[in-house]
Amino acid sequence: MPAQSMLEVVGENPCVILYDEAGALSAATSYWRCHHSIKGAGDVLVAWFSPLPEVPPHLHGPTIFANNEPLGRYVTDTFNQFFVDFQDRGLEAARVTAAQFVYAADTASPSSLQCKASGATIDLHWSDYGEGQMGRSIQHGFGSDRSRSYEVSSVIVPAHTARIAVNGHPVSGRPKPNYGALPLSAFLAFAETWTYQHGSQQ
């Protein structure tokens, strides 16, 4: 029987992932702007911070911020916890914190996200863009039990300059080049879709 499909997420998923001079991970942030999903619309920021002095201790490690709690739990448990640099970081046990979001993305000018929650304001910035590329692939090993396969499509625009600030303090680190199949570890991701492939084989 041919595989059937179900569109689960439509939106954007830009990221800023920073490394220190020695090549160690400083911070990993993944923002989901969901226009449509099986858990409704909303915004989610999945983050992990190393114990840097500019980051408050209560934000060290994994954090999840969302204005739709079920959506925050869903995108973290189904997708984000299996992304490179988010794996084995304790996201499955992190609670979802209520937050407000202001996001502006435009490749003709710098893009920004502000996430405000109790005790934390996280700002992400992207600029100095490279050439955008349309990508489509089948990704395996997702879902809470890692048994699901998804067709993923998006338009990726790499950002040569990107930064993260926490409560107004810049987080040290810079984007990494040659990030897997992507040119940089900081990028915008437009028109992103995740479609579950029922009956597909890994």
Topology, please?
Layout: E1 4-12, E2 15-19, E3 25-37, E4 42-49, E5 61-66, H1 69-78, E6 96-98, E7 100-104, E8 111-117, E9 120-129, E10 133-142, E11 148-166, E12 169-170, E13 174-175, E14 177-179, E15 182-184, E16 186-198
| Total domain units | 1
Question: pLDDT average, as an integer?
Answer: 95
Percentage of residues in helical conformation: under 10%
Query: How many strands, which pairing sense, and closed or not: the largest β-sheet?
Result: 14 strands, mixed
Q: Over the alpha carbons, how many angstroms does the gyration radius reach?
A: 16 Å
Uncertain segments are: none
Q: Structural class, from helix and strand content?
A: mainly beta
**Oligomeric form of this entry?**
single chain
How would you characterize this protein structure?
- It is a single chain.
- The protein has one domain.
- 5% of the residues lie in helices and 58% in strands.
- It is built from one helix and 16 strands.
- The strands form two sheets. Strands 1, 2, 3, 4, 5, 6, 7, 8, 9, 10, 11, 12, 13 and 16 form a 14-stranded mixed beta sheet that branches.
- The longest helix has 10 residues, at 69-78.
- It starts with a strand and ends with a strand.
Task: Name the descriptors.
two-stranded antiparallel sheet; mainly beta; globular; 14-stranded mixed beta sheet; 1 helix; 16 strands; 202 residues; 5% helix; single chain
In short:
With 202 residues, the protein is mainly beta.
